[in-house]
Amino acid sequence: FDQHFIDYFNRPEIDGWEVRKALGELHNCDVIPDPKIVEAALRACRRINDFALCLRIFEALKIKCGTKKNRKIIYPYIMQQIKPTLDELGIPTLEELGYDEPEFFIPQPEYWWERKWYIFILSF
Questions:
Q1: Which fold, 2-122?
Q2: Tens digits of residue pLDDT in 60-74
Q3: At a CB cut-off of 8 Å and minimum separation 6, what does 106 contact?
Q4: What is the mean pLDDT of the chain?
Q5: Measured distance CA(39)–CA(106) in Å, rounded
Q6: Cα→Cα distances 2→5, 29, 37, 96, Å
Q7: What are the domain boundaries of the chain?
Q8: pLDDT at 44
Q9: What is the mean pLDDT of residues 33-42?
């Protein structure tokens, strides 16, 4: 599984559409990608000069890590493993760019109906 994606991303003639297609297939799988796959995907993005897609990889990776508890464990581990590649390619992380938190806050679905929000409505 891992080697399939690594080989696909390492193809020298890969274009933007193929990178997006492979990332879509990878995101549809019920796995957190191995750091080696992420490194290969970042190198492919760098070859096609698509910086925005690099940031989308980080965002999707963060979502794939699951709950907040898992994100605090798995996401930093993966970022630590790919840090040399990021430095080599000159790609900043979401945290370095300030994109790790949304600009316009919208409550998460698990906190959407907090008691203080609906207690006022029910009191009428």
A1: 1.25.40
A2: 898 888 888 888 899
A3: none
A4: 84
A5: 31
A6: 6, 12, 7, 28
A7: 2-122
A8: 94
A9: 93
